[in-house]
Amino acid sequence: MNAPTKADVLSTQELQALDSAHYLHPFTDHGDLASRGARVIVKAEGVYVWDSEGHKIFDAMSGLWCVNAGYGRKELADAAYAQMMKLPFYNSFFQTTNEPAVRLAAKLASLAPEVGGRSFRHVFFSSSGSESNDTNVRMVRRYWDLLGQPERKVIISRHNAYHGSTVAGASLGGMSGMHAQGDLPIPDIVHIEQPHYHVHAAAGESPEDFGKRAARWLEEKILAVGPERVAAFIGEPVQGAGGVIIPPASYWPEIQRIVDQYGILLISDEVICAFGRLGHWFAYEKFGMRPDLVTFAKAVTSGYVPLGGVMVGDRVAQVLIDKGGEFNHGYTYSGHPVACAVALANLELMEQEGMVERVRTELGPVLEEKFEDLQHHPLVGVAETCGLVAGLTLVKRKQGLVPFDEADGAGMICRKHCFDNGLIMRAVGDRMIIAPPLCMSLAQVDELVALIRHCLDATLTELRDKGLLA
Ligand code: PXG
Question: Which terminus of the chain has a smaller tally of CB atoms within 10 A, N or C?
């Protein structure tokens, strides 16, 4: 088949045919996609995207948890254009640097709050969250080698965590479906259970008690592995891809106590949680965490161009710098000038519009209130928010939170009604999740919640018609 030329105008069907002929999508059953044809997204503005058939869709997932500043921001396009014309690329390998990367590193260091006397003055750049977590594995092991403790190799993570899709990222993550493909995890990465109150709490156990108990699974694992072999613990402050799992307030302080007690490093993976999503520039501040390394990506550029990295706290940076010699690690695009220029413009825009504060003081509380109302919907067992992420658990029967059978596909049914009604809301099993752009107006919050309610009603009707309700 000939590739289309620039002059060819392609119909939706032609695009779909070319798509299934040539394009292997991420996390996709390709045979299934070919049989139905991919939805083609053609343009976007504010909180909306449009498909090739002209449907306007409220993008309550901000692309993929990343378009925090919203679509169509000219400031970001201008920054990319200007930087491309001035210096589209140069590497940072051979004792060279570039101005946007330097400025961005300094800016990020200024935005990352000091906690408990620990500050972040250094940044290592990559192009994605997965790469950044690979960097973390390399950096953590290098750190312990330099301190003369090479036996400290084990990194502890959690089941149902998401830390990326490279070999190290997928190993750190706790997705069983990913581990099943490609012999993962790699050696010396082990997992404990997630702090999911509604799944793992004992009958009558308070969130406070459960949070502490869940944190102590870390201590049990450290003791089982041998404390002298443990290098680090990694976690998302709020698990995103796992279904917006918000830990009880007691969880992170207890985790902090344990990592401090055993002297192991703490990695806060904030690929989703940073840059205003939870009402702070960095989420560790909100949860009483004192991480040594912080993974970021996605919203640092509002997703306009790929950029990721690791905020490196003083404890690790000082060892790398003072004792390190050469750290044999880096990417062609570490400190890419265009990506860094877009990130700078994005952070500046978010500051000018007070977006982070607005999530904390206005949008977050309003969304929380509206989700408390949704809690009364007959299909909703649990409705929770944290800043501008939220999750709704669909249940067969409200009383006792009786779940649907997996085969009922309640989440998928709901997701279909969302798509059909102009709303992008993700389904993780029967947990419906959102992470809308931070630029939303209050009227758009109302619009979003009304759409969600409408889609829940449609789902309820379909489930009732199919006889799937208890
Ligand atoms: N850490 C976290 C916490 C993430 O959410 C990554 C690392 C990896 O980032 P990259 O840029 O390499 O994709 C992520 C990415 C989903 C979904 O289904 C979530 C992500 C990626 C793809 C799908 O919610 N998060």
Answer: N
